C-alpha cells in the first residue's frame, strides 16, 4: 500500500472508532514498515491522553447550603402559610365561622442553637381581645 | 573453528552494544503502546532477539529491527490478552481501564493542541473526547461532512509528529 492509502485506512479506522491494532492489514503494514511505528505509537498515546486535557463538560453546581438561604426559604414558607391562612379566613364565607382570623404575623430569626444551621420562629396572632389573646408560635430549625 | 568463535564473540559484543544503546529508545516506544507493561515487554523482546541474533544483519538498521521485534512482542501479548476471559472485580464488574499519563506527555500534548488551528482543535476534541459523531460535528459547525473529515484527519496527522525534544 502507498503511504497515502495506509493513511486513509488509518483515518477510516479512527473515524469508525475502531482500534487500528485490531485491523490485521494495518498491523501487518506497521510490522513491515518500522519507520512508521513511532509515529503511530505517538498518535495512539496522544489520543489516549486527550480526554485528560480537555475541559470537562460543565455540570450544574449544587447550591451551597448557607443558613441565610435556608432562613430565607423558611421565611418564605412561613409567609406563604400565613398569607394563605389570612386569605382563606378573609373570605366572606369564612368570616362567619369560628375559626378565627389572623390578626398579625411576624417572623423572627432565632440564634442558631448548637448543631443547627439556621432557625426561625413565626408568630401568628389569631385572637387579640381585651380579655383573650391567642398567639401561635412555630419554630423551625435546620440541622 | 577458533576464527569462527572469535567472530561470533565479536558479533555478540556488537549485538549487546546495540541492545544497550537502543534500550531507552525501545522502552520509550513500548511505553507509548502499553505504559504499564513496557518494562516486561522490553525484557520479552530482548530475550527473543537474543535468541534470534544469528539472523541479525549488522549492516542493517538495528534500531528499526529492534522496534519491529518490540512491536511484534506487543501485538502477541495483546492477542493473548484478548483471547483470555475478561477478569471481573469483587463486585462482578469489569474493572475500568486505568489511564496512565506521564506529566511530560500531557504537557507536550497540551502544547501541540494549542498550536492547532481552532477549528481542528475543536473537531479533534469534539470527536475523540466528547464522542460526537462526524455528522453532529458537521451540523454543529455548519460544514460539509467531508470538510469535517479533512480537518479532523489533518489534526490527527499533527499528533503523529515527534516531540520537539525527542531523542
How do you describe this structure in short?
The complex is a heterodimer of chains A (143) and B (167). Chain A is α+β, with helices and mostly antiparallel strands.
List keywords for this structure.
heterodimer; A: 143 residues; alpha+beta; 3-stranded antiparallel sheet; 5 helices; 3 strands; 47% helix; rod-shaped; B: 167 residues; mainly alpha; disordered N terminus
Distance, first to last CA of chain A = 71 Å
Tell me about the biggest sheet of chain B? none
Count of helical stretches of chain A: 5
- Report the β-strand fraction of chain B as a percent range: under 5%
Rounded mean pLDDT of chain B is 84
Oligomeric state, counting identical vs distinct chains:
heterodimer
Helix content of chain A: 40-55%
Low-confidence stretches of chain A: 93-99
Reported for the largest beta sheet of chain A, the result is: 3 strands, antiparallel
Q: What sort of overall outline of chain B do the alpha carbons produce when their principal axes are compared?
A: elongated
Number of strands of chain B: 0
Radius of gyration of chain B, taken over Cα atoms and rounded to an integer in Å: 22 Å
Percent helix among the residues of chain B?
55-70%
Can you write the helix and strand succession of chain B as a string?
HHHHHHH
- The computed structural class of chain A is alpha+beta
Helix segment tally of chain B: 7
Largest interface: A-B, 29 and 36 residues
Question: What do these coordinates show?
Answer:
- Chain A is α+β, with helices and mostly antiparallel strands.
- Helices cover 47% and strands 19% of the residues of chain A.
- Chain A has helices spanning 3-15, 24-32, 37-53, 67-90, 92-95, and strands at residues 104-109, 118-128, 133-142.
- A three-stranded antiparallel β-sheet of chain A has the order 1-2-3, with helices on one face.
- In chain A, strand 1 and strand 2 form a beta hairpin.
- The longest helix of chain A has 24 residues, at 67-90.
- The radius of gyration of chain A is 36 Å and the shape is rod-shaped.
- Mean pLDDT of chain A is 73; it is low at 93-99.
- With 167 residues, chain B is mainly alpha-helical.
- Chain B has helices spanning 2-33, 38-51, 62-83, 103-115, 118-128, 134-141, 145-158.
- In chain B, helix 1 crosses helix 3.
- The two termini of chain B are 41 Å apart.
- The model of chain B is unreliable at 1-6 and 93-99 (pLDDT under 50).
- Chains A and B meet through helix 1, helix 2 and helix 3 of A and helix 1, helix 3, helix 4, helix 5 and helix 7 of B.
Amino acid at each position: 500500500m502507498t503511504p497515502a492509502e495506509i493513511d486513509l485506512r488509518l483515518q477510516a479506522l479512527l473515524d469508525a472508532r475502531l482500534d487500528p491494532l485490531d485491523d490485521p492489514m494495518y498491523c501487518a503494514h506497521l510490522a513491515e514498515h518500522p519507520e512508521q511505528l513511532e509515529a503511530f505509537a505517538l498518535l495512539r498515546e496522544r489520543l489516549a491522553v486527550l480526554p485528560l486535557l480537555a475541559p470537562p463538560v460543565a455540570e450544574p453546581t449544587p447550591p451551597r447550603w448557607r443558613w441565610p438561604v435556608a432562613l430565607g426559604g423558611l421565611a418564605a414558607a412561613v409567609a406563604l402559610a400565613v398569607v394563605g391562612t389570612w386569605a382563606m379566613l378573609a373570605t366572606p364565607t369564612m368570616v362567619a365561622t369560628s375559626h378565627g382570623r389572623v390578626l398579625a404575623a411576624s417572623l423572627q430569626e432565632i440564634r442558631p442553637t448548637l448543631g443547627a444551621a439556621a432557625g426561625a420562629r413565626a408568630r401568628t396572632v389569631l385572637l387579640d381581645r381585651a380579655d383573650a389573646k391567642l398567639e401561635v408560635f412555630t419554630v423551625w430549625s435546620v440541622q | 573453528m577458533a576464527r569462527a568463535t572469535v567472530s561470533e564473540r565479536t558479533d555478540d559484543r556488537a549485538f549487546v552494544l546495540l541492545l544497550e544503546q537502543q534500550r531507552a529508545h525501545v522502552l520509550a516506544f513500548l511505553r507509548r503502546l502499553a505504559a504499564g507493561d513496557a518494562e516486561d515487554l522490553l525484557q520479552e523482546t530482548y530475550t527473543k532477539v537474543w535468541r534470534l541474533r544469528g539472523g541479525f544483519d549488522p549492516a542493517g538498521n538495528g534500531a528499526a529491527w529492534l522496534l519491529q521485534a518490540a512491536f511484534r512482542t506487543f501485538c502477541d501479548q495483546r492477542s493473548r490478552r484478548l483471547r483470555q476471559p475478561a477478569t471481573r472485580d469483587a463486585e462482578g464488574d469489569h474493572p475500568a481501564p486505568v489511564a496512565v499519563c506521564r506529566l511530560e506527555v500531557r504537557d507536550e500534548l497540551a502544547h501541540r493542541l494549542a498550536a492547532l488551528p481552532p477549528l481542528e482543535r475543536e473537531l479533534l476534541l469534539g470527536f475523540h473526547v466528547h464522542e460526537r459523531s462526524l455528522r453532529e460535528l458537521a451540523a454543529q459547525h455548519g460544514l460539509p461532512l467531508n470538510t469535517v473529515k479533512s480537518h479532523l484527519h489533518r489534526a490527527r496527522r499533527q499528533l503523529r509528529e515527534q516531540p520537539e525534544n525527542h531523542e
